[in-house]
Design brief:
The chain is α/β, with parallel strands linked by helices and 321 residues long. Helices cover 59% and strands 7% of the residues.
């Protein structure tokens, strides 16, 4: 038995966590260690003045982590782990920081022996795991599993048609190998994020916007981070130096296209659905200057009236005006 396997055996963790369910190559997990990592990250932000604001990097905790029932030993181990995350990790972006990416992947593989983890973080996680498992994990896991069950059931009903349409819109095939989707109780401020090579999706079940059909759109949106590569490359190439100012334009287009596909498929089933970026006000709040431009240049593409290249060209022409 390896040292890593022995470590996880002592912590009560499986060496390789099993998915809860799989829908069209999307494997949904509710993993203790992944949830612990994101919970400590969010707990560190909850201490900060900017916690719970748009300037925070973590989402807000769905419920306070009450420490009333902790033993004397646990009252030392748990705050120490949050202190470590506050000092060393919480100021790093979960998506854009290479170190946080490497930590997440090590945790996904249940391998705390990797150099990126280091002895101090390993010790903190090992000490915090029994506390989290005893006091917070049961409720987090129940909530995650309920979210997965509801989302997977809805996803299954429209997946075949939605995936075919997404393949057409993005001119890219759907996944032919399983993709890991980690559902955590609390995650990034945006509620979900995806890293590539390999594709790994993390979605918060505690985000108040992730309910009903919106949760299905979020799953498809995160998966579309892989599918959008051709359109993103075309937009970024056309922008050239303009990427400094409009570097997120491809992401706006991705939100618009995937949301429109989910809306279109649900409409065919008699369901009246408003895409996430409209329902939450995200379009106007974050990307208001692009709203009319994206709607006018990409709706014709969705309708099959123009090519993707023509939509990109029209987008550039609109920006120049």
């Amino acid at each position: 038995m390896t040292a890593t396997a022995l470590c996880f055996l002592l912590l009560g963790l499986p060496a390789a966590a099993q998915p809860i369910t799989e829908v069209h190559q999307l494997r949904f997990h509710s993993d203790l260690l992944m949830n612990l990592h994101h919970t400590l990250y969010a707990a560190a932000w909850a201490r900060r003045p900017q916690g719970g604001t748009p300037r925070a990097l973590a989402g807000a905790l769905p419920a306070p982590l009450k420490e009333d029932g902790l033993s004397a030993e646990e009252r030392t181990a748990w705050p120490a782990a949050i202190d470590y995350y506050d000092r060393r990790l919480a100021s790093k972006d979960l998506l854009f920081d290479d170190g946080m990416y490497a930590i997440k992947m090590a945790i996904a593989d249940s391998d705390l022996s990797r150099p990126v983890i280091g002895s101090e973080l390993r010790a903190m996680l090992e000490a915090a795991t029994p506390v989290y498992r005893r006091h917070f994990w049961p409720e987090h896991d129940r909530a995650n599993r309920a979210w997965i069950a509801a989302t997977a059931a809805s996803l299954e009903t429209i997946a075949a048609r939605a995936i075919a349409r997404l393949e057409q819109v993005y001119d890219t095939r759907w996944f032919t190998a399983p993709v890991r989707v980690d559902v955590v109780r609390v995650g990034s401020r945006q509620g979900a994020y995806t890293t590539l090579d390999p594709t790994h999706i993390v979605i918060s079940s505690g985000d108040p916007e992730h309910k009903g059909w919106a949760s299905v759109e979020i799953v498809f949106h995160e998966a579309s981070h892989v599918l959008v590569s051709k359109i993103a490359a075309a937009l970024n190439g056309a922008l050239a130096d303009g990427r400094r100012e409009h570097g997120q334009l491809w992401h706006v287009v991705q939100f618009y296209l995937t949301g429109a596909v989910v809306q279109e498929v649900l409409r065919s089933r008699g369901v009246d659905y408003t895409p996430y970026m409209y329902a939450t006000g995200l379009f106007d709040r974050a990307w208001g200057r692009y709203r009319r431009l994206v709607e006018e240049t990409w709706k014709p593409y969705l309708d099959g009236k123009v090519t993707a290249d023509a939509a990109v060209a029209a987008t550039m022409a609109g920006l120049s005006q």
